[in-house]
Amino acid sequence: MRAAFETLLRLSGVVAACLITAPMWHRGFYATSLLFVCLGVLCAASLVAAQIRITQRLKRHEPSVVRPLDREKLRNRALLDHAPVPLLIQQVDGTLHAANRAARRLFMTDGILREPPTSLIDALKNDASAPGKRLIRLFLKDGASRVYALSVGKGGGVGGIVAYVALTDVEAGLNAAEAQALRDLLQVLSHEIMNSLTPIVSLSATAEELFFENVGGSPHDTGLLITEALGTIRRRAEGLDRFVRGYRDLARLPEPDLKLTELAPLIREIVRLFKARWTERVALEVVLPSGKIMVRLDVAQMEQALVNLLNNGAEAALEQPAPRVQLAVEAANDAIIIRVRDNGPGIDMALQEQIFEPFVSFKAGGNGIGLPLARQIVRGHGGKLILATTDEEAQWSTTFEVRM
């Protein structure tokens, strides 16, 4: 704006000098005429000089403030930060450094890993030169754990780097493969066992009915023994039949039908089911945040998963004088966290993976299906079910955490 005003002023000076000089000369004002001529020449020269400066400025090429080597470094850093795989570098002194944004976010650091996971250090020490990828489980600072494929490349000491480390998250793939293998196994087992159990149940019931009809209403001692034996066979066969059907249900778990659902009504229905079974024997505490919480889930499946967790907690809490369980919901960081706690004897954290394995139960009379089914349902929703660490001074001894 200022440059345009100055240019207009100079043009005005030139035009004024041209219009005034001639009349003033003819009237005899020679000195004044010469003054206006000088003024016009000065304005014209200033106008030409300004145009020359503008032309030179347009033609000028600003030298780059970044050297070619620095530009290459910046480009490589940008590429590393956009890589989704966490990348680390190991220095000659053994320290590990986050090389890109994914690694900094994973280990919650701006550079050096002050307390790297023990499993990662052990893998680098024991098998750093092995070809291919190896699987390791990393336990992170937020209490979560995931399985990563570890790939290590030698740095040769160039730039003080002895190893390049890439961590590929394979948790989801392993979970899917594990679930499919479990379904295949249970389908085969349930099919074969059911083929044998069905005729046993049917024939034992028929034999019991026929024998009772033949011996009449007052059977002798031998008849009583036979009747009792047949009844036992029938009851045990029926119990085993129900047991196998439970595992078959685990194998046949369908894909969840995800729909946007308000969480509060679902929690109320779960509370109703819990109280219908446990009445006044186990106290239930419910913690819900204020406001409406919407989440995409399969209502029937998630209800089954949470009821299983609550029943599991109630069974454990029964050993205490005042058994209590808690169902707490928290909305944080674009995630929904559902915690099921109990004041039972607690679970050893060393068993946190075993308790989710099918056929494994540490309770008397347990069938090892409740927790595996709950985890499979949560995984089907794209979430995680973990045994969370519990403060020793807290009122709750066991906490199961569902993250979605």
Task: Tell me the distance between the termini.
Answer: 58 Å
Q: How much helix is in the residues?
A: 40-55%
Structural Rg: 40 Å
Strand content: 15-25%
- Main beta sheet strand tally, sense and closure: 5 strands, antiparallel
Average of the residue pLDDT scores: 75
| Gross CATH architecture of the largest domain | 2-Layer Sandwich
Query: Structural class from helices and strands?
Result: alpha+beta
Query: How would you write the strand order of the largest sheet?
Result: 2-1-5-4-3
- The best one-word shape is elongated
Give a description of the structure.
The protein has four domains: 2-59; 76-169, 2-Layer Sandwich (Beta-Lactamase); 177-251; 259-403, Heat Shock Protein 90, CATH 3.30.565. The protein is 52% helix and 18% strand. It contains ten helices and twelve strands. The protein has a five-stranded antiparallel β-sheet, sandwiched between helices. The protein has a five-stranded mixed β-sheet with strand order 7-9-10-12-11. The longest helix has 45 residues, at 171-215. The two termini are 58 Å apart. The model is unreliable at 128-132 (pLDDT under 50).
